[in-house]
Predict the structure.
Amino acid sequence: MRMLKEQSSPLVRADVAIAEAYASVGNVGIGFDILGHTVEGAGDRADVRRIAEREVRIVAIDGVITDLPMAAAENTAGAALLSMMHGLALPFGFELTLHKGIALGSGMGGSAASCVAAVVAANELLDEPLPREALYPFALDGEVVASGSRHGDNLGPMLLGGLVLATEHRLVRIPVPAEWHCALVHPHVVLETRKARAALAGHYALGEFVAQSANLAMVLAGCYRGDAALVREGLSDVLVEPRRAPLIPGFAQVKQAALDHGALGASISGAGPSVFGWFEDRDSAAAAARDMHAAFLAAGHPSDVLVAPIDGPAARVL
């Protein structure tokens, strides 16, 4: 009997992809607009469909916030997909459904997470998917819609995972000991990024820039060497925190609660109002998070708490 040769089926490209991007700590105190890391436990999800029409359509937004623009050019994720479509001269477009797990105005990278989830999902629908770094410019174009500036301190870590140094044209992943953890506490207060950036207007002394540069260098050196003492010496924001702290009810007490539990440092996450602390182990971070939550509650605001490794995950395709 003659055996028939089994024929392999041709590869069929999927028309739908789903991706999730996690929350982040932007700035990390001493790296305004250029340093950030992911925090597992909260995130945005994007369902993207490849369509024949050369356009971007947002069909639905659900989750913790739904009052967002449905016009693609006015929505951070939609703008990122438009940038991708035009930048790559794609002959097709995308249909987007957003599932918001991060509140806007939280200081946890809510707008950035939508951008990154969208472009990571859309990348799976390309005939030749791009490396993660190549998606960065498109995500930056989306972030501009929310904040008015091209900063990658949230986008970079969401794309690559972990602690990332993000300039406009480069992303550099910074090694961090696996046991180091972050406590991130988000009070139920909305602080819009544009308002928080407006608080930074005015003159700064040259000495403040020198001190901040030294602190950033100390933290980066400490991360590379796994030297907690160096990080503790450097993780202090002398430029931004003094001007934004008055916008966050109970900030001083929340920060002190982190320091009382041995934090390597504590400051404002992103534009606020969330506050983060870095710790050498998970138990210390968890204990601090409980007291940070209590401090916000004493100031009249309940809060949500995340405790996770600083070396957190990158956005993932589901």
